[in-house]
Amino acid sequence: MKTTVLLMLLPLLATAEMRWSLRIEGNLAYDGSEKIAQQFLDSFHRAVRSGVREVIAAQFVDQIFFMSCEKVGNGESIGDYKHYNRSTLVDYLVNYGSNVTMELVNCAQGSKFDHKALPTISASMIVRGIGEPFLVPAMLLIVDGKPLYWGSEVSYCKFGRPSETVGDGSMSVVYDFLESFGNAMKNRQKTENFGRAKIAEHFSEKWVINNCTSNFYKEDTVFALSTLIPTNYIRFILSLYESQYVNSEKRSIAFKAQFVNLPPFDRKPWIYTIEKDMKDGKFKLARTNYYCSN
After folding, report:
1. 237 is a domain residue
2. Where does residue 216 rank: exposed (0-12), middle (13-18), buried (19+ CB within 10 A)?
3. Residue 125: per-residue pLDDT
4. Which range of residues forms the domain containing residue 241?
5. What is the pTM of this model?
6. Beta carbons of 125 and 152 less than 8 angstroms apart
């Protein structure tokens, strides 16, 4: 079955800001998508090791969009990074594919592709061997039972834990906090009390957020997150953009971040503050500048 994909239908954001944000992601439930994504990765790696053009090309739909972090400009916009279509990517893989790997970070079943009602897998993968390593949130299209690479309109040139030397050192602290929070969300269903307690560790007693209908204090927020049942999409994403210590004692950090698919958090970027707890010495969410505009 031959499938042509219109890239304008990809539900991904392509902004310079997102290219440089740090991401932590996970699933709120299990949907079996890992097996399908791994099927693609196994097939892809066999193909690029073969060096055979036709075999490599068969891993992709007819029209793909692929962007590396190789600079072709000053790096201020996505147009300043190297773009590949199916033909140019296959050319690269034929010549250098033995050095290219893709590593699965996370994935989930996506929405049906409207034109053919084909299932999709939304997957984050670390790509190595095409310039500097980068994180790509890719779409896989299931065609006749086989997952094929569809595309991604954006790649993340920074991923993983930032160094303590970045900025004033607060980024690594916030990243550790968000990673811990993400792990608590992923493991929340082990037991009800265990999951709720682990989530609660990340909120101070002064925490409150308004979701346009009511105020969510610490207890309300923890209950909402620990009992959250995803309806359309099981994946959550935490994106960290910037951070700064707000006092010389380094007991408080303000940071800009997105909490996607984690109500009562709003999915847009807002400023949040974590403060070091006087009792256990751990950083906890204390407040946000989020306001409901409805």
Report:
1. yes
2. buried
3. 94
4. 170-288
5. 0.80
6. no
